[in-house]
Specification:
Blueprint: E1 2-9, E2 15-22, E3 29-34, H1 45-53, E4 56-61, H2 80-98, E5 104-109, H3 111-117, E6 125-131, H4 144-165, E7 167-168, E8 179-180, H5 181-192, H6 205-209, E9 216-221, H7 229-236, E10 244-249, H8 251-254, H9 274-289
Parallel strand pairs: 3-4, 3-5, 5-6, 6-9, 9-10
Antiparallel strand pairs: 1-2, 2-4, 7-8
Helix pairs in contact: 2-3, 4-5
Length: 290
Amino acid sequence: MRNSEIKLAVGDGGTITGTLREPADEPHAALVIHPATATPERFYAGFASFLADNGLATVTYDYRGTGRSGSPRAHRALGMRDWMEGDVPAVAAWTAERFPALPQLAIGHSLGGHALSLGNGTASLAAFALLASHAGTVNAIPDPMERFRVRMVLHLLGPALGAALGYVPARRLGLGEDIPAAAMTQWGGWARLPRYFFDDPSMRASERAATVTQPVLALGFSDDPWATPGQIDMLTGQLVAASVERRTYSPADGGVTKIGHHGFLRSGVRDTLWPEVLGWLNKQAASVAR
């Protein structure tokens, strides 16, 4: 496997830094992993290496204003919508240009899956998988203590810190990497709405989701405190023109004690759940290559 750093400029300003992992032999498909909010590129390294070792040229990256793609304070005005409509298409276009003869695939984790579900970065895709992507309204979180914690972060602490600092120290709040202030503001606003961004008229989310026609694999996990089956269905139910396959895995399926919202990316399920997704991706790539 060969690793190389990539850098690409985004049209409205800023630079994305990422990593391209290429198989030792010729790849049979190219894939981008679009990350979750406040989840650094390095968190996807193990899974991306697994995919590359199995023949997929795989790209991982940090959204602008996070991780290696610039400081959150310097990008304080960047919102989630900027990532979805700017960063995701930019990385998808770079990958398609780098591997023009290969089937194009993608995996979207949480926010990354939101972007794909609204048709961002999907023009060249043969298929894509959603990983714990859901309509993330706070009131739908089943556990009352977790619901209270998330509400405090999204609606009180996060916005207050963002206004004071220009960024949100999400790491100290137990939400992963630090993010720009505007991203937290937009996240908190959508999280108040019963159907998340589908209730934001400016997003035209239902209209855009209806344009997606690729095969979609939507993965959920039985112990995920946020992406419950109902909230995943609320998202995938908008993909009215796509063929959607829903799968829900339990920790027992993965041979581990916990998966949650991020555990699929950890090495504990390398031999159990990762091959399941790889098989689906290979099937989609083969259907295009024929």
